[in-house]
Write a sequence for this structure.
């Protein structure tokens, strides 16, 4: 099976140039001018950008949360991801205290095995550290290729871990070459403020934001960064929303700590006022950490541009408005947290970022694909277009204008958080390992075609670009 993508503009995190791309089987074989091969199918990309498939480092498919389960599973969620130009997701595998890590991973394999239409991998939640966990972790890193662990500093009495657990996870990760991820909010402070608000009779969605102040995110981010320095380890802060957290990350980085940060499109284009929509509509905009006051958006864009934040995750965590979000109709603390974004992540970044002059085209590719591939042990198999890389490729029309809506999106959820938003640009054709998943804006992939990816151990040198590497 051979294809030549012709006449397009190839965009990577490093370069933008006109070239043809020859794909043989599942890999990029060569890149050059006027390539020809009589056996190859010609794919015309005239007027299009051709960039590496998006790597979304933050999804929650079919995840139990708040007494319900996220609506998109590995089938609907990866189909939507592919429509949106993403060809790899890394999903969070939740663990249960007292149960083996292996059993949690097996559960996640069962959810995804026959369903995913694009490639995928797992991060592993660490909720406790004990002898059993310490014994299992090296085996899991080796056998499952899971090289990133997630610790929640919030969601008290549910997922929240204490500082000892975080610190010991950081030490263990350092020892075995893994990256520790944190949901950084001070869960104890939030618990107190939530109880107080409810006692005072405040039940509306806006109180979700008011009881999770940005200072509580900044404090937890700074604490996690300091513990990382103390452990001489490595940290990735998920879904950064605010100035206080960005400042802590920048401060840690200025001291030479290995700390990276992710933000999400929702924090770049939506703000706290959405939670005040009438008729409980504000529940559609309940994320943790919450949407912030508008000025934080400029701080986040600036941090992406200046390199203090390095990736964009969708935090795909979709719940229907009817039947799921309304579990919190009389109590904001019962509204399932999260929203649908896996399909719109790349387009929002292109339209609001590149088109509006906030980031360059190459920075865009770095943010939606390359950096996550590097940080999470997938580069250069994923995250770039180069000879030997997987042929995960997006052919993207940079000119088309469209309006985002629940009526046209492919996520399995009854609303769009971006209803009516106009964006410029759309993926037209998406290849996963050389095969069409989206062809001329139609899904032509197959559930089960997506492969589970074992990832390499954390490699800080890829970040500082000191090292040459082999295609694997
Ligand atoms: N972010 C959110 O509100 N829901 C998903 C779970 C998490 O990432 O904290
Ligand atoms: Zn989180
Ligand atoms: Zn999340």
């Amino acid at each position: 099976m051979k294809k030549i993508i012709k006449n397009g503009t190839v965009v990577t995190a490093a370069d933008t140039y006109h070239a043809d791309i020859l794909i043989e089987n599942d890999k990029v074989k060569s890149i050059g001018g006027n390539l020809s091969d009589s056996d190859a199918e010609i794919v015309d990309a005239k007027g299009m950008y051709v960039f590496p498939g998006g790597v979304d480092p933050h999804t929650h498919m079919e995840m139990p949360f708040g007494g319900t389960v996220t609506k998109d599973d590995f089938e609907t969620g990866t189909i939507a991801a592919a429509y949106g130009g993403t060809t790899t997701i890394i999903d969070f595998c939740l663990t249960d205290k007292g149960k083996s890590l292996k059993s949690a991973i097996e559960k996640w394999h069962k959810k995804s095995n026959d369903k995913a239409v694009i490639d995928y991998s797992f991060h592993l939640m660490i909720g406790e550290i004990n002898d059993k966990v310490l014994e299992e972790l090296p085996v899991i890193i080796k056998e499952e290729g899971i090289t990133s662990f997630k610790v929640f500093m919030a969601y008290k009495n549910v997922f929240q871990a204490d500082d000892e657990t975080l610190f010991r996870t950081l030490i263990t990760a350092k020892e075995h070459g893994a990256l520790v991820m944190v949901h950084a909010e001070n869960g104890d402070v939030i618990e107190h403020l939530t109880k107080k608000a409810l006692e005072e009779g405040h039940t509306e969605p806006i109180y979700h934001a008011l009881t999770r102040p940005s200072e509580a995110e900044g404090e937890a981010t700074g604490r996690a960064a300091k513990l990382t320095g103390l452990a001489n380890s490595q940290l990735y802060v998920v879904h950064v929303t605010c100035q206080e957290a960005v400042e802590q990350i920048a401060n840690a980085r200025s001291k030479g700590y290995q700390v990276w940060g992710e933000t999400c499109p929702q924090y770049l284009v939506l703000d706290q006022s959405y939670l005040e929509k009438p008729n409980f509509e504000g529940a559609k905009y309940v994320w943790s950490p919450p949407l912030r006051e508008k000025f934080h958006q400029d701080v986040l864009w600036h941090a992406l541009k200046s390199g203090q934040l390095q990736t964009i995750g969708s935090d795909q965590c979709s719940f229907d408005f009817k039947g799921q979000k309304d579990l919190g109709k009389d109590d904001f603390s019962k509204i399932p947290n999260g929203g649908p974004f896996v399909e719109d992540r790349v387009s929002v970044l292109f339209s609001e970022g590149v088109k509006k002059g906030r980031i360059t085209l190459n920075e865009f590719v770095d943010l939606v694909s390359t950096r996550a591939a590097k940080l999470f042990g997938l580069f250069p198999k994923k995250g770039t277009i180069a000879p030997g890389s997987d042929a995960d490729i997006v052919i993207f029309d940079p000119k088309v204008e469209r309006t985002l809506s629940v009526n046209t999106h492919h996520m399995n959820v009854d609303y769009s958080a971006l209803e009516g938003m106009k964006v410029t640009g759309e993926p037209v054709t998406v290849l996963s390992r050389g095969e069409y998943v989206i062809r001329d804006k139609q899904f032509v992939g197959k559930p089960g075609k997506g492969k589970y990816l074992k990832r390499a151990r954390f490699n800080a040198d890829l970040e500082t670009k000191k090292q040459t590497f082999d295609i694997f």
User: Anything to note?
Assistant: The mean pLDDT is 97. Residues 271 and 291 are 5 Å apart (CA to CA).
